[in-house]
Amino acid sequence: MTTLEVTLQTTMAPSLKELGNIWDYIGYPEDQKTGKLNSLADSLQRCLLEFIRTENEYRIGLESRIESLKRKAAQVCQSLHLPPYFPPRGLPSLQLLTQLEQHIAQYEVEITARQGSFNQRLQAIKDLSGRLGLDVDAQLQSLPSPGANPDEFIPSEQDLNKMQRKLDELQARHDQMLASFTNFCQDIRRIATDIEYLPETAAEAAILSDSTQYSMASTSSKSLNNNNNEKPLSLTESAAPAAWPLTDSSLSELAAWRLRLVKHKAMLVGTCDELRAQVALLRQRLRLGDEDDEFQLSRHQGYRPSDLAALQSELARCQNLRDGPMASAYAASLRREAAELAALCFASIGDVVGAGDPGLTNEALEARVEQLRNRYESSRELYDTVRLYQLTWEAYLDVEQRMKDPSIFSNRGGILLKTEKEKKHLLKELPRVEARVAEQLRACRGGDRFKIDGRSFEEHVQHLWDGFKAEREAAKANRRVGRVSMAGSSSDLSLHQSGQLPAAAQATPAANHHQQHQQPISMQHSAAPSRKSLAPAVTAGNTSKRW
């Protein structure tokens, strides 16, 4: 017997026993008991069949629901690109139904998360495209679409990855444009502040007043994950005027504006520097100091419009002084400046500037001063080297003069030794500097036309040495004449005292003294070295002979 049969028999046995007792008490005959028993059996059979029919209908419905859940699970797995789900074999229908419902619930959570992530990315792409001035439909054309029933659309991992790549592309473009926008604004504000620029439109005023603050929340892939704590994206734009959206055209306008400001600043800088140089030169030539008047050049070293106006005003004032009450002083200052430059260039002030021409105008003097300055600056290294030779030569002459001092021999171990070392050093340095000048003259354009007092540099150096040697020979001759005169004077004095000197001989010392006085002066004039000038190409042979 099955458990069901035992349960039914155990449950109904007391009732059947009580029914038999009732029939015995009533005293039904056997045939009547049999009829009632058959009637009871038929009634129980009908109830059992009805119960069985109901249970069978429930079984059929349960199987139908299980099959439906199996099909849904297969579709969901296919949509999510997951492996198909196979429930364990041999499970009763109710357990199988529970298993299917649990797995489908898990799939529905995944579907909801994917749909939310897809919609989130889709909205972010639309917002970014709109803010960047792009066509939204064109940006969405290559992306998966939810179709007419967005609730039934289940995006795949590939769809989400494609949406994320598009979003990252737009985000990178946005970040680049935002950085450019910020840099343009900062540069424009800085330059406008430097040059005291006044805005011409409300859009420019918004940029210069620092009221344009364009910001955007992060939409990077790090914030777009597939978890349940995902927050919606936020795109914010605070106080950004409509005239400056974050688009390519706006960036082009800002770039053009910045370029205009840069050019204007460059114009101001160049103009102010030029005016400052002109004002400084005029004030120097007019001998105007900061303490002499209200204008102080040191206070206008910038390049703002206020500095430009002040420099223009001061330039006009200095020009009025130059052409009016201080014209003669200005001309004298120009001649002094020309003389200094002529000395630097080893040129004659009379030949270059026309010092003896009283009708020379200030404009002509300025032109010649500028010509001399350009001449000096173009060959500055050459002139400086020639001047170095001149200074070295003068130092050598000074040493030679000190060597003639008799007091130098009183301290032979000190001053004499130092002076001799200095002389040897200068004798070595002179040919080196001379060779440097010759090399620079060969390398310099037009160096063969370089003249000092009408002589080439080599001739000038030879002239210096010839004069030095002539002066030294004249000094030796003077010393010899002096010794002879002193000896003759002593002899004549002794003869005169003895009364033996003739009258003609007594006149000889005076004549000799006159001759002695005349010769050194002429020799000295022919040997005096010139400090003003020096010039090109020396040869190694001439240099070695000179030493």
Automatic annotation (TrEMBL):
GO biological process, one term: mitotic spindle midzone assembly
Any one of the GO CC terms: mitotic spindle midzone
Record field: compositional bias (Low complexity): 500-520
UniProt biased composition (Polar residues): 488-499
Ranges where the record places region Disordered: 488-547
Top-level taxonomic group: Eukaryota
Gene Ontology MF term list: microtubule binding
Official protein name in the record: Protein regulator of cytokinesis 1
Species name: Macrostomum lignano
